[in-house]
Description:
Mean pLDDT: 97
Number of strands: 11
Largest sheet: 7 strands, mixed
Helix content: 40-55%
Strand order of the largest sheet: 1-7-6-5-4-2-3
Low-confidence stretches: none
Amino acid sequence: ENETNSRALKLFGLSNKKWHVNCKAPSASIANLAVISALLEPGEKILAMDLTHGGHLSHGWQTPSGKPVSLSSKIFDVSYYGVEKDTEIFDYDQILKIAKKIKPKLIISGGTAYSRDINYKKMSSIAKQIGAFYLADVAHEAGLIAGKVLRSPFPHADVVTMSTQKTLRGPRGSIIICRDELTKQIDHSVFPGLTGGPFNNVIAAIGVCLTEASTPAFKKYTNQIIKNTKILSDELKKYGFKIVSGGTDKHLILIDLRDKNINGADAAKLLNQAGLVTNKNTVPFETGTATKPSGIRIGTPAITTRGMREKEMVQIATWIYQVLIENKNPAVILREVKALTKKFPTKL
Length: 348
């Protein structure tokens, strides 16, 4: 555990005199709950990103009617900020206005479907202006931050949480990195607050993935993720697909299908039949439902890990167009997908 904690600090270039690591929480959702419960008393206020705009359940979500969905929303008073309707990206001045009105004790950034790089410095400034803690959840972006292809939340955030199984390419687990002065309450919140004995096998595997993430090969992988995602986004736009926010800075793309006469659930099902695995997803200012939202979300880390590059992104965009717009038989596309993936086998 100590070795893994040291490797986390080294990977992100942090001093053990200023920062502390806890890698015991079995998932980032539990890590988030541990941080929230460490910093806040029940009933205190949180300002987090709207789930339908790309936020995450663990930050505290309740339905528009006010029904709590996640545990954090049952315990704490949660309000939301989101993207602007015309740009579908953050207006940090607007977030500041909301923060000044709400006066939360904790502001959270990060989520699952916001495809633009987050300005952690501006988010930190907003939190400081109202005397709030700032939690940067980089569950999705951790590997890209380690590879230095995205902004880093350090030193701006008070606490940073992350998954280890996404762009970090490690086991399913999490890491919490907090300012040294928050060590005692964060550690106590993880254990005995929310967990029992640690998963030492997972902690050891996290240590291995952190070492791999410090190699030149990993840096090359993160650079290729960005290249692949941008090419895929550009190709999909050529086919007339509406990309939320107009593009991407990361590893993911969110497509708004409201002008294509198909919902995200049906689209994801059709694409899955063709061997193209995506997921249904809400889009900003959603007009559908949680079960039949208006969008689909696509990510490139797995296909990049297999060795696919720009040429393959062009082909994947074509297949998506053929399935969703030209109504080509998914079974036909599946055969073509299998032929391609045989050239890029997964490696054990």
